[in-house]
Every structure is written in structure tokens, then in C-alpha cells.
Design goal:
Elements (H helix, E strand, L loop, with lengths): L1 H18 L3 E9 L2 E9 L2 H22 L7 H8 L5 E2 L2 H16 L9 H6 L12 H8 L7 E4 L4 E4 L12 H15 L4 E6 L3 E5 L8 E6 L7 E8 L1 E7 L4 E4 L2 E4 L2 E2 L4 E2 L5 E6 L2 H25 L4 E7 L6 E7 L10 E5 L2
Antiparallel strand pairs: 1-2, 2-6, 3-5, 4-5, 6-7, 7-10, 8-9, 9-18, 10-15, 11-12, 13-14, 15-16, 16-17
Helix pairs in contact: 2-7, 4-8, 7-8
Bound molecules: adenosine monophosphate and magnesium ion.
Length: 345
């Protein structure tokens, strides 16, 4: 009796809820040195606000855990101790470090979370950019390389095989935070939302009412306000790495904040790379990796990894001009219910 009543109540509620207008809710929150934004559609703005607060609390927790700007973070403690003893790491962070090392192996070391000391040598952590001497760079390079990081999955332990190795999750953490945010939205029944971490990563959950997907612009590499390519996304992510993000100029040369860990030098000849992938952790790591690899080497990766697309903007000879290269995985068929399309501006 009770059961059938519940079913009746549910059935009669259906047509009503379908008729009801959905509201648009938007909120932003500063974390990880950027601004996270949630745009969501639903029936009740107050409810969406509560879910967004839960999302932002989780992002703050991740920031406090993964920041290497905070001495008390789990990552800072790991960086201090792991050369001397194996350090046990929280399960989700351990999995993210595992993932990061896998991206290193798959990209021939182009993506490498041990770049921290190089970032400091080039002055990208706090303060002014600078060009290190050859001797300094040679010394720093001895401490760079994902092969210096050893994992024991059973014990969830991380160990470095020499002093001075450091982990820097700056190339993957914002995408990971976006994925966590989307999990929380889904768990709470939100079916249409766009979550972004500044200009770095975003995930398009479902689609706005009456739309096929979320329309997102990839910015022009020279002018923030000018739109470049247009991307349509549904249940898909997009991440961008750009030399416009953080860079410095010294004696007429511009140095980008993305470093080729194999040479120790900031990447040249690349303005931006934007990657479409099923998950934001993946698009974030790969936008950084492809920025380092460039189109030619990225093609090799795309031949064996499905459902990825990348838009490169490379500097062209004339001032303030660029060359656009779009590549897709050899096997590109986003699953039913998702959308990942690039159309010219
Ligand atoms: P993104 O904007 O996602 O490309 O990340 C850039 C950030 O990742 C930098 O600010 C560094 O903290 C870090 N990073 C720089 N170069 C690399 C690299 N080759 N692999 C992994 N992380 C890097
Ligand atoms: Mg990245």
C-alpha cells in the first residue's frame, strides 16, 4: 500500500517537474591560485548553492593538501621527508601521483611532476623570473626526473632516491579538482553544470536546458578578450596551457612557465595547447604534456590513446600572428551522450 502510494506520488510529480522552469545558478571561489566557477541549472537555486558550497569546501581541502606554497600541506611534508624515508600518502593523493607518473612514462617524460626545482631556478615560484647559469641548471637537473620517485602501492608509500627531489602538481591538480567537483555535483543529482578552474581546466556536465552542449571559446593566444576556436562539449572536459599564463621576458626573449624537464629549459615555439578529453585530470596533464611535445610528437601519443583532440597555437614568423594545428586521436568516437566538437571561430 505504502509502496504504491510512493510510486503514485512520484509519477504525478514527473509531469510537473518537467514543466517547471529551471533556474541558472552561478558562484565562484578562489583556490589553487585561481578562481573556480560553477554554473549550474536546476529547479532550486538555494539547493544548487548548497551543493556549490560542498564543491568549494572539497576544492579548499585539495588545495590545502596539494599546495607547495603551504609549508603544512601533505605535499610539502612529503617533499621534506621522502628522500630520507618512505612516506605514507592519503589514498586519493597516492592515486594522483600514480597517475602523474603514468603520464610521464607515456609521454617520454614531457609531463613530469618533479619539475619543481626547475620552476624555482627560473624564478617561477614567487618573485621575479630569472635565467639560471649553466652550472646551476646542471646541478638542478640532477634532481629532476620522475624516475627518482618510487611508489609502493601496497603500502601506499612514496620515496625519492635522492635529496632535493620535489613534487609539483601544478600541471594536473586543477583538472583533478574539477573532476572531484563534478563527482560531487553528480552525487547530488545535478545534471547540467559547467565547472572551471580559471583559464586552466573545465568540465561540461550535461547541457544547458534546450541545448546540445556547452559552448566554450578557446581564447586567442595574444589577446585574452578575443575568442579563438569554439568548442561544443557535453560530458567532456577541456584544458588549456598557455605561454600567456605566467611568463617573463628577459633581454628580448619570452620564457613560458612550462618547462621541458629533459632539457631544463622553458618550452619555446609554443603559444598554447588546448586538449579535449573525457576527464579533466587527463586533459590537464595532457595540455601540459602536449605543450612540451609539440604537434609532431603528440601525434604519436594520439595514435594509441583514444578520444582526445588538441588545438595548438604556434608562433608564426610575423609579429603577433600564429599558426593553428588541430589533431585528433586516431580512434575518436566520444561515447553516446557526450559531445566534443571543435568548430572554427
Ligand atoms: P598547466 O598550466 O596545466 O600547463 O601547468 C603548468 C604548471 O605545471 C607550471 O606552473 C608548473 O607548476 C608545472 N609544470 C611546468 N612544466 C611542467 C611539466 N613539463 N610537466 C608537469 N608539470 C609542469
Ligand atoms: Mg596542465
Amino acid at each position: 500500500m505504502r509502496v504504491s502510494l510512493l510510486i503514485l506520488a512520484f509519477l504525478s510529480a514527473l509531469p510537473l517537474s518537467a514543466q517547471e522552469q529551471s533556474v541558472r545558478y552561478e558562484a565562484s571561489h578562489d583556490a589553487m591560485g585561481t578562481e573556480f566557477t560553477v554554473v549550474a541549472y536546476g529547479r532550486d537555486a538555494k539547493y544548487l548553492g548548497e551543493v556549490a558550497n560542498e564543491v568549494f569546501a572539497e576544492i579548499d581541502r585539495l588545495d590545502a593538501q596539494m599546495s607547495n606554497y603551504r609549508a603544512e600541506s601533505e605535499i610539502s611534508a612529503l617533499n621534506r621527508d621522502a628522500a630520507r624515508r618512505a612516506v605514507i600518502v592519503e589514498p586519493a593523493l597516492f592515486a594522483l601521483i600514480q597517475d602523474s607518473l603514468r603520464y610521464s612514462r607515456e609521454t617520454d617524460g614531457a609531463f613530469d611532476i618533479t619539475v619543481g626545482p626547475l620552476m624555482r631556478a627560473w624564478g617561477f615560484f614567487r618573485g621575479q623570473g630569472r635565467v639560471p647559469t649553466h652550472a646551476e641548471l646542471a646541478e638542478v637537473l640532477e634532481r629532476i626526473g620522475y624516475r627518482h620517485v618510487h611508489l609502493d602501492a601496497e603500502r601506499r608509500e612514496v620515496r625519492f632516491d635522492r635529496e632535493g627531489v620535489e613534487l609539483d602538481l601544478g600541471g594536473i591538480a586543477k583538472g583533478y579538482a574539477v573532476d572531484r567537483a563534478v563527482e560531487i555535483l553528480r552525487e547530488n543529482g545535478v545534471t547540467a553544470a559547467l565547472v572551471s578552474s580559471g583559464t586552466s581546466s573545465l568540465y561540461a556536465l550535461g547541457a544547458p536546458p534546450g541545448e546540445q552542449g556547452w559552448k566554450v571559446n578557446i581564447r586567442d593566444p595574444f589577446e585574452a578578450g578575443r575568442a579563438g576556436d569554439v568548442v561544443w562539449l557535453k560530458n567532456y572536459s577541456l584544458s588549456a596551457s598557455g605561454s600567456y599564463e605566467r611568463f617573463f621576458t628577459f633581454e628580448g626573449k619570452t620564457y613560458a612557465h612550462i618547462i621541458d624537464p629533459r632539457t631544463g629549459h622553458p618550452v619555446e615555439n609554443m603559444l598554447s595547447s588546448a586538449v579535449l578529453a573525457p576527464r579533466a585530470t587527463q586533459s590537464d596533464a595532457l595540455s601540459t604534456a602536449f605543450f612540451v611535445l609539440g604537434p609532431q610528437a603528440s601525434r604519436i601519443y594520439l595514435a594509441t590513446h583514444p578520444n582526445l583532440a588538441v588545438v595548438f597555437n604556434q608562433p608564426a614568423p610575423a609579429r603577433q600572428t600564429f599558426r593553428r594545428v588541430i589533431l585528433r586521436s586516431t580512434s575518436f568516437s566520444p561515447p553516446p551522450g557526450s559531445l566534443a566538437e571543435i568548430s572554427p571561430p
